[in-house]
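Supplementary Methods S3. Complex input for the nicotinamide-adenine-dinucleotide-bound model.
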Amino acid sequence: MKHFKTGIIGTGFIGQVHIETLRRLGNVEVTALADTFNAKETAEKLNVPHYFSDYKEMIDIMKLDTVHICTPNNTHFEIAMYAMDHNVHVICEKPMCITIDEASKLTAKAKEKNLIGGINFHNRFYPMNNHLKNIIKDGELGEIFSITGNYTQDWLLYDTDYSWRLNSSESGNTRAVADIGSHWMDLAEYVTGQKIIAVNADFSTIHATRKKPKGIVLAYSEKNTDENDYEDVKINTEDNANILFKFSNGAKGSAFFSQVIAGKSVDINLQIGGYKKSAEWHSMSCNNLIIGKRDACSEFVEKGLGTVHSSTKPLIAYPFGHAEGFPDAFKQSFRDIYHHIEYPDSSHEHADFDDGLHEMILCQKIFESNQKQGWVDVP
Ligand SMILES: NC(=O)c1ccc[n+]([C@@H]2O[C@H](COP(=O)([O-])OP(=O)(O)OC[C@H]3O[C@@H](n4cnc5c(N)ncnc54)[C@H](O)[C@@H]3O)[C@@H](O)[C@H]2O)c1
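Predicted complex, serialized as structure tokens:
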């Protein structure tokens, strides 16, 4: 197995998850990190040997095989371009960037340079989602006619909650859609094998103005700030998105994406309706899958080597009864991406730059649909 040297760019909430889960792979050494804020402190805290405030310097000096881009969305394009221009493979957080044009250029650059580009749509890597994909492919549910669900959160409920994500110049045209809806749409398409071909969206924003702290705020930060430390800012991204979908096999669907539903920290739900059976996966009980039947007891399938599809077994790292969750899905996503880098001709399960580009097109078409208040086709 090849040994890789990687550098992590952006070490806020998710960058630190990347560092922790990469170390569990065994063949990836986190050699360096780069962050414009607190790079030295983070490197010392996480025992990363080299740190930089400028990612370019890190790429120039460190002779890395890969970089992981874990910075705000509007920086992904320039960082990924710089890395690929220096022949470094890129593992990029979702969404891939903020425009279709950027995503197209990155996809073309990876092909031109013969580099692997991975997008961390990690929900594909919960074993029960992989199992669901495999049983749908085998025809167990019958033909799929309905794909519905939601992705809800509550961390932006109050007008004093703030993140760079609220500002479209940093997050892109959409926020709830690009930030969390992209996960749901990627998962829905991945497990069903169907592509979204038309969207009809309706957005709402519950706080037209929010109180932005004057200092730096990391995602999910619970730091309290004095009232005088805030400034009022206008919000130009959606808190809620209700969307209808048409899928490529004729299935119809709908989803609700929101970052302001009290009590929903991270709540992803996917329901698939087939002519024989239905299936439901829920992130809060991610080791289980419910298979709905009309003429018999519904099945409650628990993750285990003896219960999942034979093709899903490699995604299970711990025996029956031992839960695997969010960081485990990251580990499996990275394992697949690094396997793909080592064996570029092998098949892969991870989202790649083509999937990242598709997701950027979906976000843009959903944005246009909300503006138009009607159906928009997805090319
Ligand atoms: N896959 C997932 O489930 C998941 C979850 C959370 C976030 N994300 C994605 O990860 C990315 C980061 O999100 P986050 O929640 O970690 O944000 P965050 O605000 O917690 O952290 C971002 C970090 O990037 C640093 N940074 C900003 N610009 C930089 C630059 N030019 N060079 C180096 N460092 C820079 C900031 O100082 C900060 O430490 C986003 O694209 C987000 O959509 C993915």
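The chain has two domains: 4-122, 126-318+352-377. The CA atoms of residues 142 and 194 lie 14 Å apart.
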